[in-house]
């Protein structure tokens, strides 16, 4: 205890004066992989995150629809780094930077000194200027709390419909509008349709859950429009076969307490509903802007708030400050900006980890190169689309590929077996065991500003 | 849809005019077992609960200490009664009764008519007249939300200690006071001690979690003092061996934001702490009082608010109204009042189910008789005490008995295999995979009065 206390005072986990101090902000794919890659580096690492866990975001929609529990897709950062003694995990909120003193400032008034700084705080929802109004009405899906809020709203709508005798109210309660036809929107729409039509089919007495309308609103002509057209079309057809109403070329115009207004090819249409889920826009974490401003390079931010980085993921003129993952705007040599997806974040994390280790050792590295292994999206419990180079898969085979890849990634965490088991169990029983409506009462116990938030 | 809608209008799930209407309030052990027992009865049953799930409360402390996920110990009531077509599950809050019209009134303004009424809404925390002050400072352990609040506070205390450089603050943050040496208090104390000393032993860099003080405050001379003295003593010794400081003959006098004051044999002592967990008092659900008042029999309530019931669990003069479980004050022929434990609730549920079925069929039954199979409490992950008749077990064997019984009960639910698997996994790895700090942010998304509360 004495000894470790002293180490803390001298600024790092197992470091001492003179050991390079590496501060990594954000324990997502980018930050976590970076810290892992540094396991043999001669540096003392502080990994700071607002939460005490790493979240496997690609499966968050499963939590939102009761298929998995939060703990199935989250691993405590302390467990992940238990045996990596050069990493100290800190739970805290970074609020500012003082680059001239090489300091990161935390909300609680403390600060962390760094020789190398890595920022990977990702992205958050973006309601196109309507944040204040729409955020409460149409929760997005970025955090565990988002997922449990959506789970509560979706399940509560069925519960309220079962008690209602007003046909219009029942119709409204059983209408679910998902805004955005990207991977998250497609996964949510498919999952809610399956929940209603399969999982809960025999659970009610007054209503028939199969009457539920699941409406996916998408701006462009096809869902998943970044994929090859044949895959996008197939995904749309898969959704329809699950009972989802896909409204392409449709834009959300208004969210009110009992209906939404959409513009289909410019024509307004009101859809009575009380459950709207946001899967449309994301914007970069505000810490990117804060850092850029403090470095006098706010002009390096793009429209979405992402920070432009060099070919080594560092900021121009600051070779010891890196931005990685969804927060980074990395332009490839052929002029394309890399998308905000997990593989990019992970590869950048690994790269920057290697680069810092090399710099500490007095060596250097080549530029970051993204190896695009392909993309995949899942539609319900047995369909997916996969695109990798010229290979394109659909249907069951694609779904198996999707499952394999996701289990493989999860295999890095200790709860891998549990998730696989839970999946298998749900698959066999067609059930979703995590269908709990929780939280409303919690808000009554905990104040708005939780004692530990 | 048409057909089931009509049934709803005539007052029940698969009933029609003339079919006896049975309303069961509360989906805990008592109400759930009652509804199950009525599966072949010629009646239409409405089971109403504030939540959409049945909770296996005996394992709630595992959620509070990160060993299990909420969904592991909760099963959606709709799943449980999916194939029992004479049961309609309703999620709603009962606020009043109109016995003269045989109506139950819900918060949303609707009402349910009954021919038979079963009330089994259990108990809630009781802070001996200090509810308003103490409830926020010292959460109890009755609901899933309680458990996640406690989990957040306990884990956050370690997180804050890791960041602190103030020795006194660290000491205070690493001190956990559990009030009440009954089964819940003993389980919580043992679990927190194991969490600190085993699970998280290698997780921190600045603090040593083994320095955590876990203090169990108990009024009487021994913990678990309803058990045979030899077992109580053994439980106390087991706790000490896990590193728990057991303070017997000690009463909580004050809870303040950074310390508590206890009276040990009358002498005041201040203990600096920020985490206090309440496992001391319970009182009956207020619906018991409401019902008794409406029936003009408020004098039948005991000090804890329990409703005195007849030998058939009905209320005096109201042979069609039953109160069961923790809410009932059942006096055995030899003058003892049955304790508020799960086996009593389950047996009363089964009995009243049988009795209502018999009454509908024009038959009758004998009085309720409690078959006391014994009691058990667990202390950490490999110790327990078991008492059954003249048989007394301690240590590992008792723990295996405890595990067997609990898995057996859970076996009624679909998530039985998952829990067993999670347990086994945690046991082998000495890990707790559900160590998530969540919820504070949720309070910011959802208003105090949630849209669906």
Could you outline the blueprint of secondary structure elements for this entry?
2 copies of one chain form a homodimer.
Chain A: H1 2-9, E1 21-25, H2 29-37, E2 44-49, E3 53-55, H3 60-64, E4 74-76, H4 77-80, E5 87-91, E6 94-98, E7 103-106, E8 111-113, E9 116-119, E10 123-126, H5 131-137, H6 144-163, H7 167-173, E11 175-179, H8 183-199, E12 213-217, H9 229-241, E13 244-247, E14 250-255, E15 259-264, E16 267-272, E17 275-278, E18 281-284, H10 286-294, E19 307-308, E20 314-315, E21 318-323, E22 328-329, H11 342-360, E23 375-379, E24 383-388, E25 391-394, H12 395-410, H13 416-429, H14 440-445
Helix pairs in contact in A: 2-11, 6-7
């Amino acid at each position: 205890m004495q000894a470790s206390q002293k180490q803390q005072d001298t600024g790092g986990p197992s470091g001492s004066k003179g050991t390079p101090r590496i501060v990594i902000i954000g324990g997502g794919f980018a930050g976590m992989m970076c810290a892992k890659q540094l396991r043999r580096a001669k540096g003392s690492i502080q990994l700071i995150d607002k939460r005490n866990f790493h979240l496997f975001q690609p499966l968050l929609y499963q939590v939102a629809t009761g298929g998995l529990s939060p703990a199935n897709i989250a691993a405590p950062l302390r467990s992940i780094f238990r045996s990596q003694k050069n990493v100290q995990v800190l739970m805290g909120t970074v609020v500012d930077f003082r680059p001239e003193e090489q300091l990161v400032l935390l909300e609680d008034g403390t600060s962390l000194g760094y020789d190398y700084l890595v920022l990977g705080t990702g992205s958050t929802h973006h309601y196109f200027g309507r944040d204040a109004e729409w955020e409460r009405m149409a929760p997005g899906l970025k955090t565990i709390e988002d997922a449990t809020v959506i789970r509560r709203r979706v399940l509560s709508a069925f519960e309220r419909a079962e008690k209602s005798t007003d046909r219009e109210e029942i119709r409204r309660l059983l209408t679910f509008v998902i805004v955005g036809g990207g991977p998250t929107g497609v996964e949510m729409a498919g999952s809610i349709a399956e929940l209603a039509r399969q999982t809960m089919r025999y659970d009610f007495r007054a209503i028939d859950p199969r009457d539920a309308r699941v409406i996916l609103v998408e701006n462009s002509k096809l869902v998943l429009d970044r994929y090859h057209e044949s895959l996008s079309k197939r995904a749309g057809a898969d959704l329809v076969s699950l009972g989802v109403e896909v409204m392409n070329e449709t834009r959300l115009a208004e969210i009110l307490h009992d209906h939404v207004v959409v513009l289909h090819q410019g024509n307004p249409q009101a859809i009575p509903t009380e459950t709207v889920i946001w899967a449309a826009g994301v914007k970069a974490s505000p810490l990117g802007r804060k850092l850029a401003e403090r470095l006098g390079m706010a002009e390096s931010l793009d429209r979405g708030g992402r920070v432009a980085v060099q070919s080594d993921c560092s900021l121009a003129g600051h070779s010891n400050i890196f931005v990685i993952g969804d927060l980074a705007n990395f332009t490839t040599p052929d002029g394309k900006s890399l998308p905000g997806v997990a593989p990019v974040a992970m590869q950048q994390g690994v790269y920057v980890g290697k680069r810092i280790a090399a710099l500490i050792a007095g060596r250097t590295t080549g530029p970051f190169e993204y190896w695009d292994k392909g993309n995949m999206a899942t539609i319900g419990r047995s369909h997916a689309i996969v695109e990798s180079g010229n290979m394109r898969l659909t249907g069951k085979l694609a779904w198996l590929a999707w499952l394999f890849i996701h289990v493989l990634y999860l295999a890095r965490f200790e709860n891998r077996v549990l998730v696989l088991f839970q999946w298998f169990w749900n698959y066999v029983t067609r059930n979703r065991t995590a269908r709990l409506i929780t939280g409303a009462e919690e808000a009554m116990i905990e104040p708005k500003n939780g004692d530990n938030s």
